[in-house]
Structure to design on (804 residues):
DNA sequence: GATGAATGAGTGTTCATTCAT
DNA sequence: AATGAATGAACACTCATTCAT
């Protein structure tokens, strides 16, 4: 026994991820997690104060990866491609951990309020980043008029749904992933309705 | 005692809605609901076989209102306005019951599988309606190219998030609501990025 | 409504018998009984003060039939045949209501003590009758030596088991029933071991 | 805390036996058992998955002791004494645990079907052993003619009743016990009716 | 007499958390 | 550091009984 402390923590985290994946948060019992990690129950509480906090640790991980995934757009470069790259990165960050993504985005309310708060916090960070980017974009003229808050919420929501949808299916191929990136980009860039470009009947 | 059976059912439904709103699904105990409704526990089980089913009844209500909210677009009329009207209706259907909306769209996975199924079923119905409309639109030339499945998921996801966001805030004024309708319409119609309409640097 | 009071009581009794047959005492709910009798729950309590008492009423019925079934042996007649007739009658009284017999003899302990008492009381009555008969028989020289109490308990117990066994099976034919009568008579009359009638090895 | 696991199990078993004795199966609450054992409710479920299974464990114990109590009759020895010894052993096995015996033989129907099954299973084992022995005996000429099935059921039933009767009373003295053994043996060997050995009047 | 909606005390079971070893 | 036996508060659900109509 007595392996490295960090190592043990990582093992528990990994076990929790698996169990959450299989059973969802509520149905995942601490017993399941320690069984998966092959440690005793006491050990669990040596590393995490309670069940929620191991989920939070997992969530924080995801949040961090997300923040790193988004790059500031540099007007000096190919803007469209940078935007595409950001879409691609965000998609990738989530798809790297479908389980966590699913749980994460699926629980938003109706749970322990503290827990919900955690999920919200991460979302708000993302939202804030996107909103600021949109505001910048408006100043630079690469984003059209509109309430940046609404635009950000809508965009993130759309991507979330796409993600959730994708996570439910078998792992996406490279092409499928790229198609999604392209579609999202197109929606953001031109929308898809062509109403007023048609002669009124 | 012995008031009208339908009335009592409605009271329980209303009580449940309130309690779910205050505490979320898991934290809402049957005891809370019956206390809110001022009936005994036995009475609850006279009207609903278990806790889940009272939630499902609430969900079904919402689903029904949603389906009624969406109208088929008639090309002979003002298409843009009809689309706006659909956006407006869907928004309205949800905003009429912020609590339920929140709970409903917040739970998607990680809960009792049977329960999740319910929520999914409603979403899929909505999605199917939208996807079909988009496909029709493409044939009629009022919807641009793109995978209708992806477009539908993205659009619904965007609206969901907007909704969830709105539900968290104080009740929306008429103007705020209309602004959201307009913004969504604009995104769908033109997107918001203006990248390739700018001269490349 | 408002049919004859005795009639209603009988209907409830019949319904209870059926339900007890199908489900056993504990699993038979008052709701089941009133459903079977097509009356309301309130009506049940109009005729019986509680669930146990309807069972007791059924039990009393059985006890009465039993007592009537046993005839005093008249030494002036064919004694063997009279004993056989008594065996036959007791067997018949029980087999007339296999359900009640089963429940009745199956519950003896482990239930509400009051309830058990009822069952015991009936058994004791039977036992007392038999014991007295055996005592008489000993005086008359038609019953061999032995503790009449033990003989009575053993004999009744044996018949009870035979009965219970028979009740579990399909209804007995006339011949099967007669065979049991004959076997029991033979056991009581001669036993079945032939040990000391064999030359010791 | 944290005493030996087997020890704790035994304590719970003992506590359950007492409580079942005092209150019967249905009236014995898990709360009663854990109070008797001075452990928490959680501990109970650590050792037994549910209430029924602790009863089954008790029943299995009894069944095992019974099977060990019955010895195959060896014709080369004193057959009568061997039969007496078997009667004595079976009696002893039950009387060693009057409580359990009472509950065990008193419940036969009307309870949870699964539960009943357990009790029946044990009885059937006993019956099968006895029936086979009788069949052997008939071939060897030490058991008279008659349906071995009926003989077995009757014999076991008689003993059961004697047992139940004895269990209700104060603990039997050695002499009382031996008297029962002798009486049962005599019944089986010669019966107790002396009808046709008397001149008809 | 009859009804059936309402009651609420009661019960088996779960599981996150603790702590003596 | 690690264990795992022990805890006990919590909860969904049941059902015999009551009583206003």
């Amino acid at each position: 026994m007595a392996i490295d402390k960090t190592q043990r923590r990582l093992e528990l985290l990994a076990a929790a991820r698996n169990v959450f994946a299989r059973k969802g948060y509520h149905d995942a019992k601490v017993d399941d997690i320690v069984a998966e990690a092959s440690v005793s129950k006491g050990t669990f509480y040596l590393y995490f104060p309670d069940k929620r906090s191991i989920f939070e640790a997992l969530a924080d991980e995801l949040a961090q990866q997300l923040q790193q995934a988004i790059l500031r757009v540099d007007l000096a470069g190919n803007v469209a491609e940078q935007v595409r790259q950001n879409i691609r990165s965000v998609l990738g960050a989530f798809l790297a951990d479908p389980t966590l993504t699913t749980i994460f985005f699926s629980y938003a309310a109706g749970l322990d309020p503290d827990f919900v708060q955690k999920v919200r916090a991460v979302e708000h960070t993302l939202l804030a980043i996107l909103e600021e980017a949109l505001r910048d974009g408006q100043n630079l003229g690469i984003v059209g008029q509109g309430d940046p808050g609404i635009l950000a919420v809508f965009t993130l929501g759309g991507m979330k749904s796409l993600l959730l949808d994708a996570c439910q299916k078998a792992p996406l191929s490279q092409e499928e992933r790229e198609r999604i990136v392209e579609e999202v980009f197109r929606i953001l860039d031109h929308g898809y309705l062509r109403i007023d470009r048609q002669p009124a009947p």
In short: Residues 23 and 128 of chain B are 32 Å apart (CA to CA). Residues 113-140 of chain B form the longest helix (28 residues).
